[in-house]
Predict the structure.
Amino acid sequence: MAGFTIKKQTSIIVLRLFLGGILAWASIHKIVDPLAFARVIQDYRLLPSPFINPCAVILPYLELLLGVCLISGLWLPGAVLLTNLLFLVFSGALGFNMLRGLDVQCGCFSSNVSENQAAIWYLIRNVGFVFLAGYLLVKVIKDEEYDTRKVFY
Amino acid sequence: MTKMGSYRHMLFVALRHSGAILTLAVVIGLLVNQVRPDGLSLSADLSTDSAQISESQDGLTISIEEAKALFLAQAVLFVDTRSGESYKEGHIQGAKNLPYGEFEGMHEEFLKNVDNDCFIITYCNGGGCRSSEHVALALLDKGYPNIYVLNNGWAQWQEHNLPVETES
């Protein structure tokens, strides 16, 4: 039984560190060059122009905060929920643009618009993240040992 | 508490935490953007067809026709303020690269052979790009009064089929 608990906790910790690391890493280049990130968002052609710059300014810090929360355990249920939403939105945006035939650079780990990789690869990778984040959400919500009065998990 | 009730409670907690994280992200993002020198204009429209002139850029902009005339008369130095990679991929013929992010480290060497009365046009790419404006203001500050900004310059230059070159 103890072994099962450890295993259960280990999978949560590994997923937290993995997804948290990815989000924190992905946020850095966007924070360094917000203008390039704004252009990536513009290339998606999903947001009306007035929302592009505010999104380019706020989204990187949301990613960074989520990364920090996932790794440290701070506000974990909320961080996992938002991580799920974020990956769903990214995948939806990528998939939608693929369907309408727009060749966009995902901007996930680089803001260099000229850097071009197959969109299908981005989509597969993002869908993988969606599954991992979904699994983590289920694990955290079902964790009966978690004291919700605590700030840290 | 029943299992269902406990899940519901957990979701409620998750929503509350999400609100805190989102609020923090908005506050930090806006604050940092306000403080950093290359912060984005939150009211700027990124679409390339509209003239993007922010308040501080007023009076510096030059039209593509004027820029073309100065180029043909060989009376102007074009300064490409995009990244080194973008510059290498293609730039206005004869333009020199001075990315805003590297201005502090590069400007002394860059300006060594540029007379103070030289006409300079800075440009970047995209209607919302502001590095050309930042570099223009920095050059004004260094004692170069004849500075102009070609708004959305790289795209406009290509649209008008004007001479370009790549770094060989």
